Amino acid sequence: MSEPETLVFLVVIGARFVVPLLIPRFPLPAIVAALVLDGVDQSIFQLFGYDPPGYQSYDKAMDMFYLSIAYLAAMRNWTSRPAFDVLRFLFFYRLVGVVLFELTDWRPLLLIFPNTFEYFFIAYEIVRLRWNPVRVSRRTWVVTAAAIWIFVKLPQEWWIHVAQLDVTDTLRAMPWLVPVLVLLGAGLAAAGWFWLRPRLPARAWDWHVAADPLPEEIDTAAERDRWVTAQGRVWSAATAEKVVLLGLLCIIYGELVPGRRTTDLELFLGVAAFVVVNAAISMAVARRSGNVESLLAAFVARVVLNVAMVAAAGWLLARFGGGFDPAAAVFYVLLLTLILTLDDRFRPVSQVRFGADAARAEISAPSPDRPSGH
Protein backbone atom coordinates (compact mmCIF):
# COMPACT_ATOMS: atom_id res chain seq x y z
CA MET A 1 0.00 0.00 0.00
CA SER A 2 1.12 3.53 -0.71
CA GLU A 3 1.25 6.07 2.11
CA PRO A 4 -2.10 7.76 1.20
CA GLU A 5 -3.79 4.36 0.88
CA THR A 6 -2.43 3.30 4.26
CA LEU A 7 -3.68 6.52 5.83
CA VAL A 8 -7.18 6.12 4.36
CA PHE A 9 -7.31 2.49 5.46
CA LEU A 10 -6.27 3.34 9.02
CA VAL A 11 -8.73 6.25 9.27
CA VAL A 12 -11.66 4.12 8.10
CA ILE A 13 -10.72 1.18 10.33
CA GLY A 14 -10.15 3.53 13.26
CA ALA A 15 -13.55 5.15 12.77
CA ARG A 16 -15.20 1.75 12.66
CA PHE A 17 -13.68 0.96 16.05
CA VAL A 18 -14.29 4.35 17.69
CA VAL A 19 -17.85 5.20 16.56
CA PRO A 20 -19.42 2.09 18.20
CA LEU A 21 -18.08 3.20 21.58
CA LEU A 22 -20.75 5.92 21.54
CA ILE A 23 -23.60 3.38 21.33
CA PRO A 24 -24.03 2.89 25.10
CA ARG A 25 -24.70 6.61 25.61
CA PHE A 26 -26.36 7.54 22.31
CA PRO A 27 -27.80 4.25 21.04
CA LEU A 28 -29.76 5.26 17.97
CA PRO A 29 -27.54 7.93 16.37
CA ALA A 30 -24.37 5.97 17.12
CA ILE A 31 -25.54 2.66 15.68
CA VAL A 32 -26.94 4.43 12.61
CA ALA A 33 -23.56 6.13 12.18
CA ALA A 34 -21.84 2.74 12.50
CA LEU A 35 -24.28 1.28 9.97
CA VAL A 36 -23.65 4.11 7.51
CA LEU A 37 -19.90 3.78 7.95
CA ASP A 38 -20.20 0.06 7.29
CA GLY A 39 -22.08 0.84 4.08
CA VAL A 40 -19.71 3.47 2.68
CA ASP A 41 -16.30 2.18 3.75
CA GLN A 42 -15.57 0.40 0.49
CA SER A 43 -16.88 3.35 -1.50
CA ILE A 44 -14.37 5.53 0.36
CA PHE A 45 -11.59 3.14 -0.59
CA GLN A 46 -12.72 3.17 -4.23
CA LEU A 47 -12.81 6.96 -4.18
CA PHE A 48 -9.08 6.88 -3.47
CA GLY A 49 -8.50 4.12 -6.01
CA TYR A 50 -7.79 1.48 -3.41
CA ASP A 51 -9.34 -1.96 -2.97
CA PRO A 52 -8.04 -3.60 0.23
CA PRO A 53 -7.37 -7.30 -0.35
CA GLY A 54 -9.51 -9.60 1.78
CA TYR A 55 -11.54 -6.70 3.13
CA GLN A 56 -14.66 -8.90 3.37
CA SER A 57 -13.17 -10.61 6.42
CA TYR A 58 -12.14 -7.30 7.99
CA ASP A 59 -15.64 -6.00 7.34
CA LYS A 60 -17.37 -8.92 9.07
CA ALA A 61 -14.97 -8.74 12.01
CA MET A 62 -15.64 -5.04 12.52
CA ASP A 63 -19.36 -5.63 12.10
CA MET A 64 -19.29 -8.09 14.98
CA PHE A 65 -17.29 -5.64 17.08
CA TYR A 66 -19.89 -2.90 16.86
CA LEU A 67 -22.74 -5.39 17.21
CA SER A 68 -21.06 -6.67 20.38
CA ILE A 69 -20.92 -3.13 21.75
CA ALA A 70 -24.59 -2.68 20.84
CA TYR A 71 -25.49 -5.92 22.63
CA LEU A 72 -23.69 -4.76 25.76
CA ALA A 73 -25.34 -1.34 25.44
CA ALA A 74 -28.73 -3.08 25.45
CA MET A 75 -27.77 -4.65 28.78
CA ARG A 76 -27.24 -1.17 30.15
CA ASN A 77 -30.18 0.60 28.59
CA TRP A 78 -33.05 -1.67 27.60
CA THR A 79 -36.03 -1.93 29.91
CA SER A 80 -38.08 -4.54 28.04
CA ARG A 81 -37.10 -8.08 28.96
CA PRO A 82 -38.98 -9.65 26.01
CA ALA A 83 -37.20 -7.35 23.56
CA PHE A 84 -33.84 -8.12 25.14
CA ASP A 85 -34.47 -11.87 24.94
CA VAL A 86 -35.16 -11.54 21.21
CA LEU A 87 -32.08 -9.38 20.76
CA ARG A 88 -29.85 -11.87 22.57
CA PHE A 89 -30.97 -14.68 20.29
CA LEU A 90 -30.43 -12.57 17.17
CA PHE A 91 -26.96 -11.54 18.31
CA PHE A 92 -25.61 -15.00 19.04
CA TYR A 93 -27.30 -16.45 15.96
CA ARG A 94 -25.47 -13.95 13.77
CA LEU A 95 -22.23 -14.43 15.69
CA VAL A 96 -22.29 -18.17 15.04
CA GLY A 97 -23.03 -17.54 11.37
CA VAL A 98 -20.09 -15.17 10.93
CA VAL A 99 -17.75 -17.65 12.64
CA LEU A 100 -18.91 -20.40 10.29
CA PHE A 101 -18.44 -18.08 7.31
CA GLU A 102 -14.90 -17.20 8.39
CA LEU A 103 -14.05 -20.87 8.81
CA THR A 104 -15.60 -22.06 5.54
CA ASP A 105 -15.74 -18.95 3.32
CA TRP A 106 -19.16 -20.18 2.12
CA ARG A 107 -21.09 -17.00 1.42
CA PRO A 108 -24.65 -18.43 1.67
CA LEU A 109 -24.04 -18.79 5.41
CA LEU A 110 -24.46 -15.02 5.69
CA LEU A 111 -27.91 -15.46 4.16
CA ILE A 112 -28.79 -18.34 6.48
CA PHE A 113 -27.58 -16.34 9.50
CA PRO A 114 -28.74 -12.82 8.58
CA ASN A 115 -27.87 -9.75 10.61
CA THR A 116 -31.39 -9.13 11.89
CA PHE A 117 -29.91 -7.98 15.20
CA GLU A 118 -28.84 -4.61 13.84
CA TYR A 119 -32.22 -3.46 12.51
CA PHE A 120 -34.06 -4.91 15.49
CA PHE A 121 -31.85 -2.80 17.76
CA ILE A 122 -32.70 0.24 15.66
CA ALA A 123 -36.42 -0.59 15.76
CA TYR A 124 -36.36 -0.75 19.56
CA GLU A 125 -34.51 2.54 19.83
CA ILE A 126 -36.97 4.21 17.45
CA VAL A 127 -39.80 3.08 19.71
CA ARG A 128 -37.91 4.36 22.77
CA LEU A 129 -37.63 7.83 21.25
CA ARG A 130 -41.23 8.64 22.20
CA TRP A 131 -42.81 5.52 23.69
CA ASN A 132 -42.20 3.10 26.54
CA PRO A 133 -40.88 -0.23 25.17
CA VAL A 134 -42.07 -2.02 28.31
CA ARG A 135 -45.65 -1.59 27.10
CA VAL A 136 -44.92 -3.51 23.89
CA SER A 137 -45.83 -7.19 24.10
CA ARG A 138 -43.43 -10.07 23.54
CA ARG A 139 -45.50 -11.14 20.53
CA THR A 140 -45.03 -7.72 18.93
CA TRP A 141 -41.28 -7.85 19.41
CA VAL A 142 -41.11 -11.35 17.91
CA VAL A 143 -43.24 -10.29 14.95
CA THR A 144 -41.04 -7.23 14.47
CA ALA A 145 -37.91 -9.39 14.39
CA ALA A 146 -39.55 -11.83 11.98
CA ALA A 147 -40.64 -9.03 9.65
CA ILE A 148 -37.13 -7.55 9.60
CA TRP A 149 -35.65 -11.01 9.03
CA ILE A 150 -37.92 -11.95 6.13
CA PHE A 151 -38.65 -8.69 4.35
CA VAL A 152 -35.47 -6.70 4.96
CA LYS A 153 -32.46 -8.82 5.82
CA LEU A 154 -32.97 -11.87 3.63
CA PRO A 155 -33.19 -9.79 0.42
CA GLN A 156 -30.33 -7.59 1.57
CA GLU A 157 -28.04 -10.48 2.52
CA TRP A 158 -28.81 -12.23 -0.76
CA TRP A 159 -28.08 -9.06 -2.73
CA ILE A 160 -24.79 -8.32 -0.98
CA HIS A 161 -23.32 -11.70 -0.13
CA VAL A 162 -24.80 -14.24 -2.54
CA ALA A 163 -25.51 -12.28 -5.73
CA GLN A 164 -22.67 -9.87 -4.81
CA LEU A 165 -24.38 -6.98 -6.53
CA ASP A 166 -23.41 -3.34 -6.12
CA VAL A 167 -26.06 -0.64 -5.81
CA THR A 168 -24.09 1.94 -7.79
CA ASP A 169 -23.36 -0.45 -10.65
CA THR A 170 -26.96 -1.67 -10.73
CA LEU A 171 -28.40 1.84 -10.87
CA ARG A 172 -25.93 2.76 -13.59
CA ALA A 173 -27.01 -0.26 -15.63
CA MET A 174 -30.74 0.26 -14.97
CA PRO A 175 -31.33 4.01 -14.50
CA TRP A 176 -35.10 3.53 -14.54
CA LEU A 177 -34.77 2.09 -11.04
CA VAL A 178 -34.02 5.54 -9.62
CA PRO A 179 -37.52 7.03 -10.13
CA VAL A 180 -39.07 3.72 -9.07
CA LEU A 181 -37.17 3.81 -5.80
CA VAL A 182 -38.04 7.47 -5.29
CA LEU A 183 -41.74 6.73 -5.81
CA LEU A 184 -41.53 3.73 -3.51
CA GLY A 185 -39.89 5.82 -0.80
CA ALA A 186 -42.49 8.55 -1.21
CA GLY A 187 -45.26 5.96 -0.97
CA LEU A 188 -43.85 4.49 2.21
CA ALA A 189 -43.45 7.96 3.71
CA ALA A 190 -47.04 8.83 2.83
CA ALA A 191 -48.30 5.56 4.30
CA GLY A 192 -46.38 6.25 7.49
CA TRP A 193 -47.72 9.78 7.77
CA PHE A 194 -51.36 9.26 6.82
CA TRP A 195 -52.00 5.66 7.94
CA LEU A 196 -49.49 4.71 10.64
CA ARG A 197 -49.10 8.02 12.48
CA PRO A 198 -52.78 8.38 13.48
CA ARG A 199 -52.75 4.82 14.83
CA LEU A 200 -49.72 5.25 17.06
CA PRO A 201 -50.34 5.19 20.82
CA ALA A 202 -50.05 8.34 22.87
CA ARG A 203 -46.47 9.45 23.43
CA ALA A 204 -44.99 8.45 26.76
CA TRP A 205 -42.37 11.21 26.89
CA ASP A 206 -40.46 13.81 24.91
CA TRP A 207 -37.62 12.80 22.63
CA HIS A 208 -35.31 10.22 24.22
CA VAL A 209 -32.11 10.21 22.16
CA ALA A 210 -29.52 9.77 24.87
CA ALA A 211 -29.60 6.67 27.04
CA ASP A 212 -31.76 6.84 30.15
CA PRO A 213 -30.16 7.04 33.61
CA LEU A 214 -29.26 3.81 35.35
CA PRO A 215 -31.59 2.40 38.01
CA GLU A 216 -31.01 4.20 41.29
CA GLU A 217 -30.21 0.99 43.11
CA ILE A 218 -27.13 0.31 40.96
CA ASP A 219 -25.96 3.65 39.59
CA THR A 220 -22.71 3.88 41.58
CA ALA A 221 -19.60 1.72 41.78
CA ALA A 222 -20.24 0.96 45.46
CA GLU A 223 -23.78 -0.28 44.74
CA ARG A 224 -22.52 -2.37 41.86
CA ASP A 225 -19.82 -3.89 44.06
CA ARG A 226 -22.39 -4.81 46.71
CA TRP A 227 -24.63 -6.44 44.12
CA VAL A 228 -21.77 -8.39 42.52
CA THR A 229 -20.57 -9.54 45.93
CA ALA A 230 -24.04 -10.78 46.85
CA GLN A 231 -25.16 -12.19 43.51
CA GLY A 232 -22.10 -12.71 41.33
CA ARG A 233 -20.36 -16.03 40.79
CA VAL A 234 -17.22 -16.91 38.86
CA TRP A 235 -18.74 -20.16 37.59
CA SER A 236 -22.05 -18.90 36.27
CA ALA A 237 -24.21 -18.54 33.19
CA ALA A 238 -22.90 -14.99 32.83
CA THR A 239 -19.31 -16.22 32.67
CA ALA A 240 -20.28 -18.93 30.20
CA GLU A 241 -21.96 -16.35 27.98
CA LYS A 242 -18.86 -14.16 28.08
CA VAL A 243 -16.72 -17.16 27.13
CA VAL A 244 -18.91 -17.89 24.12
CA LEU A 245 -19.11 -14.25 23.04
CA LEU A 246 -15.40 -13.51 23.33
CA GLY A 247 -14.24 -16.93 22.21
CA LEU A 248 -16.20 -16.73 18.96
CA LEU A 249 -15.31 -13.08 18.46
CA CYS A 250 -11.61 -13.87 18.79
CA ILE A 251 -11.93 -16.75 16.33
CA ILE A 252 -13.31 -14.25 13.82
CA TYR A 253 -10.42 -11.86 14.41
CA GLY A 254 -7.99 -14.76 14.52
CA GLU A 255 -8.67 -15.38 10.84
CA LEU A 256 -7.17 -11.94 10.14
CA VAL A 257 -3.97 -12.39 12.14
CA PRO A 258 -1.07 -13.31 9.82
CA GLY A 259 1.12 -16.17 10.92
CA ARG A 260 -1.13 -17.21 13.81
CA ARG A 261 0.41 -20.13 15.68
CA THR A 262 -2.70 -21.45 17.42
CA THR A 263 -5.64 -23.48 16.21
CA ASP A 264 -9.16 -22.14 16.64
CA LEU A 265 -9.77 -24.56 19.50
CA GLU A 266 -6.59 -23.49 21.28
CA LEU A 267 -7.54 -19.86 20.80
CA PHE A 268 -11.04 -20.46 22.17
CA LEU A 269 -9.70 -22.33 25.21
CA GLY A 270 -7.14 -19.59 25.84
CA VAL A 271 -9.87 -16.96 25.71
CA ALA A 272 -12.01 -19.06 28.05
CA ALA A 273 -9.20 -19.19 30.60
CA PHE A 274 -8.66 -15.44 30.20
CA VAL A 275 -12.35 -14.74 30.83
CA VAL A 276 -12.54 -16.99 33.90
CA VAL A 277 -9.45 -15.40 35.44
CA ASN A 278 -10.89 -11.95 34.80
CA ALA A 279 -14.20 -13.01 36.36
CA ALA A 280 -12.34 -14.11 39.49
CA ILE A 281 -10.43 -10.82 39.58
CA SER A 282 -13.67 -8.85 39.18
CA MET A 283 -15.24 -10.74 42.08
CA ALA A 284 -12.21 -10.11 44.27
CA VAL A 285 -12.19 -6.39 43.47
CA ALA A 286 -15.94 -6.11 44.12
CA ARG A 287 -15.62 -7.81 47.51
CA ARG A 288 -13.09 -5.16 48.48
CA SER A 289 -15.25 -2.36 47.03
CA GLY A 290 -12.32 -1.53 44.80
CA ASN A 291 -14.10 -0.54 41.59
CA VAL A 292 -13.93 3.05 40.39
CA GLU A 293 -16.67 5.21 38.92
CA SER A 294 -14.75 6.09 35.76
CA LEU A 295 -15.21 3.55 33.00
CA LEU A 296 -12.01 4.73 31.31
CA ALA A 297 -10.00 4.36 34.52
CA ALA A 298 -11.41 0.86 35.04
CA PHE A 299 -10.49 -0.07 31.47
CA VAL A 300 -6.93 1.25 31.78
CA ALA A 301 -6.38 -0.52 35.10
CA ARG A 302 -7.62 -3.79 33.69
CA VAL A 303 -5.49 -3.41 30.55
CA VAL A 304 -2.38 -3.02 32.71
CA LEU A 305 -3.32 -6.07 34.75
CA ASN A 306 -4.13 -8.20 31.71
CA VAL A 307 -1.00 -7.18 29.81
CA ALA A 308 1.06 -8.20 32.83
CA MET A 309 -0.82 -11.49 33.05
CA VAL A 310 -0.33 -12.27 29.35
CA ALA A 311 3.34 -11.26 29.53
CA ALA A 312 3.83 -13.69 32.40
CA ALA A 313 2.08 -16.41 30.40
CA GLY A 314 4.35 -15.66 27.44
CA TRP A 315 7.42 -15.94 29.65
CA LEU A 316 6.27 -19.32 30.94
CA LEU A 317 5.49 -20.57 27.44
CA ALA A 318 8.92 -19.46 26.21
CA ARG A 319 10.58 -21.57 28.90
CA PHE A 320 8.86 -24.62 27.45
CA GLY A 321 9.54 -23.79 23.81
CA GLY A 322 6.18 -22.14 23.11
CA GLY A 323 5.08 -18.57 22.61
CA PHE A 324 2.79 -16.22 20.72
CA ASP A 325 3.01 -13.13 18.57
CA PRO A 326 3.33 -10.08 20.87
CA ALA A 327 1.45 -7.69 18.55
CA ALA A 328 -1.45 -10.10 18.18
CA ALA A 329 -1.45 -10.68 21.94
CA VAL A 330 -1.72 -6.94 22.64
CA PHE A 331 -4.60 -6.62 20.18
CA TYR A 332 -6.46 -9.51 21.79
CA VAL A 333 -5.84 -8.11 25.28
CA LEU A 334 -7.27 -4.72 24.29
CA LEU A 335 -10.29 -6.28 22.57
CA LEU A 336 -11.03 -8.72 25.38
CA THR A 337 -10.47 -6.15 28.11
CA LEU A 338 -12.79 -3.64 26.48
CA ILE A 339 -15.63 -6.14 26.11
CA LEU A 340 -15.13 -7.53 29.61
CA THR A 341 -15.02 -4.09 31.18
CA LEU A 342 -18.26 -3.07 29.49
CA ASP A 343 -19.87 -6.39 30.33
CA ASP A 344 -18.92 -6.11 34.00
CA ARG A 345 -20.39 -2.60 34.09
CA PHE A 346 -23.59 -3.26 32.18
CA ARG A 347 -24.64 -6.83 32.95
CA PRO A 348 -25.48 -6.14 36.62
CA VAL A 349 -27.69 -3.25 35.48
CA SER A 350 -29.66 -5.59 33.26
CA GLN A 351 -29.97 -8.24 35.93
CA VAL A 352 -31.08 -5.75 38.58
CA ARG A 353 -33.61 -4.13 36.26
CA PHE A 354 -35.13 -7.36 34.97
CA GLY A 355 -34.97 -8.97 38.40
CA ALA A 356 -36.94 -6.07 39.85
CA ASP A 357 -39.48 -6.34 37.03
CA ALA A 358 -39.92 -10.06 37.70
CA ALA A 359 -40.37 -9.41 41.42
CA ARG A 360 -43.00 -6.75 40.76
CA ALA A 361 -44.83 -9.07 38.39
CA GLU A 362 -44.81 -11.83 40.99
CA ILE A 363 -46.14 -9.49 43.68
CA SER A 364 -48.90 -8.15 41.43
CA ALA A 365 -49.99 -11.60 40.26
CA PRO A 366 -53.13 -12.92 42.00
CA SER A 367 -52.50 -15.58 44.60
CA PRO A 368 -53.78 -19.06 43.69
CA ASP A 369 -55.21 -19.28 47.20
CA ARG A 370 -57.56 -16.36 46.80
CA PRO A 371 -59.73 -14.97 44.03
CA SER A 372 -58.36 -12.10 41.97
CA GLY A 373 -61.55 -10.07 42.12
CA HIS A 374 -64.77 -9.60 44.09
From TrEMBL:
Keyword Transmembrane helix annotated: yes
Keyword annotations of the record: Membrane, Transmembrane, Transmembrane helix
Domain of life: Bacteria
Annotated TM spans: 6-23, 109-127, 139-156, 176-196, 267-286, 295-318, 324-342
Protein name: Uncharacterized protein
